[in-house]
Each structure stands twice: as structure tokens, then as C-alpha cells.
Design a protein that fits this description.
It is a single chain. The chain is of the alpha+beta class. It is built from 14 helices and 13 strands.
Length: 490
């Protein structure tokens, strides 16, 4: 009988003592009910069956790949029979050269895409403002004689407008997107979509405007801020209807006020990958003030190679000269440590600061205030290169070439078989006796190899043993039989 789960095993020699008085009734933990295991077992069996089927399919594919011919070289001697075999050989050599050139070009394109080369452009920023309902604008209107404070009832306001655009945007974009346009080699079609221009907000993460006035008199807000939404938060804000325009060429804001106000405009650049400001010591060493992390490491490597600081025995070790020792405070360092050691020498880029005076004593500024800012943009040729690397037509072309190569390999295998048959029958026709002798000898060697016998000394020893047995046991019997069959002379 199977014991219940609550039964306990009693050790030998155990003497039960007095039974304690029962404790007051209390609700303890109830019996644990295990979940049914049958669905889990069925799922495991299904998974095992699926894995088994996948393994069988993988083995079948491996067998097919092993059986599939890959040699596309025509054997020697076919050119003497078929004259076009030489043309095929020339085509194979030309294909080999083309494949090498294409692979070299693709590697160059991939290297150029990974380097992420940037071009410098000039972004021109225009800042202007207008004033409305100011006291000097409504002074010519008639006032109410019965009014106590002679207020006009109008609230004076001003509106600030910030705009920006790339210089020579149309000409430079056309030249970048089509480098051969000036030669007239690839004219743009009439039905081609218009060129997409980069807008002002594309180059900045955030824009902050600070108005220099008292917060007690103007508590409605002296700081205006715009931040670019990240891809992670954009779907949530879109669902709430809080998203504004994705990109814009400029924006404007309106505030109350009737006095001239100084304002500070701070522009935080948006660059990918991020650029950093170098410390003075590292900037003097690398001769640059701003760069990406990858660019900083590459420039340090170039400096090490130019000054011969690489250890001749351990290539990853760098022997620091006084300049590097002053920056990293070590005599020797490993090259993989450079990204970590440079973290203390790089800082976020300082924002672009523009000072502007908001004029409320005139209706509109005579001319907007202009500021030119140098920015970095991706090389448009890099986008074309990336499109070439990720082109679906290229993948389809590779599949088509692979199919043609498999077909050529099958044809070459058929040619090899045909040549072997021809050589077989030709050798048989020229000297049948010698051919049969060689063929039987080769078959004998193959049979000995398959049976595990060495086709050398072991075969000779077996023949000697059989010959000795013939001489000892059979020869005498045959001799006596022949003597008995001879007639006795009369």
C-alpha cells in the first residue's frame, strides 16, 4: 500500500513518549494542490518532435549540400576534343577578375560607410521681433474723458521670430544628391520627387530662450523651451495628441511687455554620433577642439604611430612620451584603455548662445539680426553607399548568380563523366588485352582495400602458402593418379 504524503519514516529503536495535549485549533496551511502536468508534458513532446524534425531537415540539407557539385573547372584534355572549352576557360578567368574588383569596391564602400564622414555647412539664423498695441501705437486714438486712469484697454505685446536655413541650400543639395549633374550625365527626370531639404529644427536637440526681466512683474513665464522628442516617447505623445510639427524652419512666440528686453537664445546641437569638447591639453595634442569618441581614439592612434610610441614586442602597449604622460598620468598604457582614459578629458558641447535685444519702441525691426553657425551633416554620398549595401536587388542578383553557378557545376560534372566514359572506351579500343589487364589489377587493388587487406606483402604471403600446400599435399596424389592411368607395357 502506498503511504500517504503525511506519513514519516520512523527510525529503528525509537520509543514513543507521552502524547502532548492537543494545541488549540488554528487554521494552518492547507494541502498544496499541484497544477496538472499533462499539458506541460504534451508541450514538451511537441517541442521535442519539432526539434527532431528540424534536426532531420538540417541533416537532409547537409546531405544535399554534400552531394551538390561545386567544381566549375573543365578537366584537362577537353580542349583537344571541344574547341569552345578554351573560350569557357577565358570567361572563367575574366569572371574571377571581375569578382575580385567588385569585392574590393564593396569593401571600400563598407569602409566609407563605417567611417561616417561629415561635411561642414553654414546655417544662417535670423532673429527678429514685432511690437503690437504699444502705448505709442495707440496714442493717436481718442481717449474716454470719463475714464479714471485713461487706459486704452489694449495689452501691449511683442512677438519674437527665429528662423534658419542652410546657405546655398538648393544648389548644394542638387550637387550632393547628384554629383554628375554639372556634367549633364544623369539629368533629373521631370516626374522625380522634389529634393528633401533639411529644416532648421533638424540640427538642434533643444532651443531655450531666456527673457531678462523681473519674474515678479511678469510671472507668466520668462523661459521658452523647445525639446526634440525621442523615438521612444514619440508614440505615447502622438496617442495623446501632444505632438507638434516634426520639423520646422522657424518658430515664434508672443509675450506681454512694453519695454525693450534683452533675451538669450541657447541652441543645443543634435549630432549623430555625438561630438564632444576636448580638454585644453588633449585639444593641443590632437590639434582639434571637437570630435566624436571614435575620432578621438583614431587621432590618438595616429599620434602614437607618428611618434613611434608603440611597443615593438607587445603591439597593444604604448610607451607614453611626456605629452601623453601629462594627459593620462601613466608611463605605459594598453590601447584598449584609451576610450576609458579619455572620458575625463571630454565634455558636452557648449550651446550656441545668441544675444538679442527685443525692441518694443518700433513696430518692426528694420532688418533681422543674422548669425552664421557651422554645423556638420552626413555626406550624401554615404547615403547612396548605404543604399547600395542594403539594396534588395543586389541580394536577388546574388541568388540568381548562385543558381547559375550550381547549373554550371552540374554541367561540368556531366562533362567530367562524359570524358571518363570516352577515355574508358578509347583505351579499350586501342589495346584491349593490356586495358583488361590493368582494369583487373585495379579492381583487385580496390577489392583488397575494401576487405581491409594490404595489397602488398600479405597477398604475396598468401600465394606462397597456397603454393606450398599444393606441392606438399596435392602434387603427390596427382602423380600417383597419373601413374595408375598409364598402360603397363606387354
Amino acid at each position: 500500500m502506498r503511504p500517504s504524503p503525511v506519513q514519516m519514516r520512523v527510525p529503528a529503536g525509537y520509543v514513543p513518549g507521552p502524547v502532548p495535549s492537543p494545541a488549540p485549533a488554528s487554521r494552518g496551511p492547507g494541502p498544496m494542490i499541484r497544477p496538472p502536468q499533462q499539458p506541460h508534458q504534451q508541450m514538451s513532446q511537441q517541442q521535442m518532435a519539432a526539434q527532431h524534425q528540424a534536426a532531420v531537415a538540417e541533416r537532409e540539407l547537409a546531405k544535399r549540400r554534400a552531394r551538390k557539385p561545386t567544381d566549375k573547372t573543365i578537366p584537362e584534355g577537353v580542349e583537344e576534343i571541344v574547341a569552345n572549352a578554351r573560350v569557357y576557360r577565358d570567361l572563367r578567368e575574366m569572371e574571377r577578375r571581375y569578382d575580385a574588383a567588385i569585392m574590393r569596391k564593396r569593401l571600400d564602400i563598407q569602409d566609407a560607410v563605417n567611417r561616417n564622414i561629415k561635411n561642414t555647412r553654414t546655417l544662417r539664423i535670423f532673429v527678429s521681433n514685432t511690437a503690437k498695441d504699444q502705448l505709442w501705437q495707440v496714442s493717436d486714438r481718442p481717449l474716454d474723458e470719463n475714464a479714471f486712469d485713461f487706459d486704452t484697454g489694449q495689452i501691449p505685446t511683442f512677438r519674437v521670430k527665429i528662423e534658419g536655413r542652410l546657405l546655398d541650400d538648393e544648389e548644394s543639395d542638387a550637387a550632393e544628391l547628384d554629383p554628375d549633374s554639372d556634367l549633364g550625365l544623369t539629368p533629373r527626370p521631370d516626374n522625380a520627387p522634389p529634393l528633401q531639404k533639411r529644416k532648421f529644427s533638424h540640427f538642434f536637440k533643444s532651443i531655450v530662450i531666456e527673457l531678462d526681466r523681473s519674474r515678479e512683474l511678469h510671472p507668466e513665464g520668462n523661459t521658452i523651451e523647445w525639446r526634440k522628442q525621442s523615438p521612444a516617447t514619440q508614440p505615447a505623445t502622438s496617442a495623446l495628441g501632444l505632438n507638434g510639427p516634426a520639423e520646422f524652419d522657424g518658430f515664434e512666440f508672443e509675450r506681454k511687455g512694453d519695454d525693450n528686453i534683452n533675451c538669450t537664445i541657447k541652441l543645443i546641437r543634435d549630432e549623430s554620433p555625438d561630438r564632444f569638447r576636448l580638454s585644453p591639453a588633449l585639444a593641443d595634442l590632437l590639434d582639434t577642439k571637437e570630435d566624436t569618441r571614435a575620432g578621438i581614439v583614431m587621432k590618438v592612434w595616429e599620434y602614437v604611430r607618428a611618434h613611434g610610441l608603440q611597443d615593438p614586442d607587445e603591439k597593444r602597449t604604448i610607451n607614453c612620451n611626456p605629452q601623453l604622460r601629462a594627459i593620462f598620468n601613466v608611463d605605459r598604457l594598453y590601447f584598449p584603455q584609451i576610450p576609458e582614459l579619455t572620458l575625463s578629458h571630454i565634455h558636452p558641447l557648449e550651446p550656441i548662445v545668441i544675444k538679442y535685444l527685443v525692441r518694443c519702441d518700433v513696430a518692426a525691426s528694420m532688418s533681422p539680426q543674422i548669425h552664421d553657425v557651422t554645423i556638420f551633416i552626413d555626406d550624401p554620398i554615404r547615403q547612396k553607399m548605404h543604399a547600395v549595401m542594403q539594396s534588395p536587388s543586389y541580394i536577388g542578383m546574388l541568388r540568381e548568380i548562385s543558381t547559375i553557378d550550381d547549373h554550371i557545376a552540374m554541367l561540368v560534372q556531366a562533362i567530367n563523366h562524359s570524358k571518363a566514359k570516352r577515355d574508358f572506351w578509347r583505351s579499350l579500343a586501342e589495346d584491349p588485352a593490356e586495358f583488361v589487364k590493368r582494369w583487373v589489377s585495379s579492381q583487385k587493388r580496390d577489392l583488397d582495400t575494401l576487405s581491409g587487406e594490404t595489397p602488398g606483402r600479405m597477398v604475396e604471403e598468401d600465394e606462397v602458402r597456397k603454393a606450398a600446400q599444393w606441392k606438399e599435399r596435392v602434387a603427390e596424389s596427382v602423380y600417383l593418379l597419373l601413374v595408375k592411368q598409364r598402360p603397363v607395357p606387354q
